[in-house]
Amino acid sequence: MKTIQWFPGHMTKAMRMMEQSVPLADGIIYVLDARCPAASFNGKLIKMAGNKPVLYVLNKYDLADERADALMKIIGANAVKINASNANSKRVVSEAINRLTADKREKSLAKGYSKIFRFMVVGVPNTGKSTVINLLAGSKRTHTGDKAGVTRGKQWIRLDGFELLDTPGTMPPAFENQKLALHLAFVGSINDDILDIDDIALELLGELYEKYPARLQERYGIAGGTKLEMLDCVCKKRGFILKGGDYDYERAERAVIDDFRKGRLGRITLDTVGDMQGLSF
Question: Number of H helices and number of E strands within the chain?
Fold first, then answer.
């Protein structure tokens, strides 16, 4: 399949904007996709943060399984798992922010003033940065969407006791690990318009059969075979048949991708412990 690369011009502009905003921030909230925290980690964003404290928020945990717990432990103590669409997650993130700022807050109070802490919220596209901010705000304060690249501008959001800067999703300029690039394509962090959906669907079926064969057996009747034979099973199970009896592969491909992204195949974690090696959290 073709090499995956995606770094449109607006991301270069976004990186410059974030570099200019870093001095104004007290810390970084890095939103990762719990299904693929290694793939959704952009080391350039952390390098930009310098010595600022970082809180890693593994969002969409409702779509990941218990394998994500082992990956979160590798990240360390400054990591929490949430579903930003669930109001109960607000307490988890708020408490983590308070822990991260406890020392500085005590020092400011000892000097007789209450400091307003500012955090940049960063991550690759479609991990739910804006949804996390809306969760903390208790209302819709930023634009959200299920397509990569919704947030384009800079938005400071004032909340109780701190401010958040919503930033555009930004990829690394090049994907050195194409396996992780595929994971980003699977979860929708890369614009579908630049992808070969044929390749993505077939690669997704292959990886899911390797890691979660029972899920494919249950939903599509897949019991093995080549990736194309697996897609044949999807067509037969779902009735994706064209006039003349040919299989409607395009419809089947989009169905497989959509089923995965919407959680219809169950809770799935794509990344492994090995994928986390060498990342500087």
Answer: 10, 6
CA–CA separation, 89 and 91 (whole Å): 5
pLDDT tens, position by position, 202-251: 999 999 999 999 999 999 999 999 999 999 999 999 999 999 999 999 99
252, 236 contact by CB (below 8 A): no
What residue has token string 């009735």?
Answer: 239
Q: In Å, how far are 152, 187, 202 from 169, measured between CA atoms?
A: 8, 14, 26
Judge whether 37 and 68 are in contact, CB under 8 Å.
Answer: yes
For 39, 164, 179, 249, the CA distances from 270, given in Å and listed in that order, are 9, 30, 10, 24
Provide the 10 A C-beta neighbour count for residue 1. Answer: 12
CB count within 10 Å of CB 270 equals 27
Buried b (16+ CB within 10 A) or exposed e, 146-159: eebbbbeeebebeb
0.85 exceeded by pTM: yes
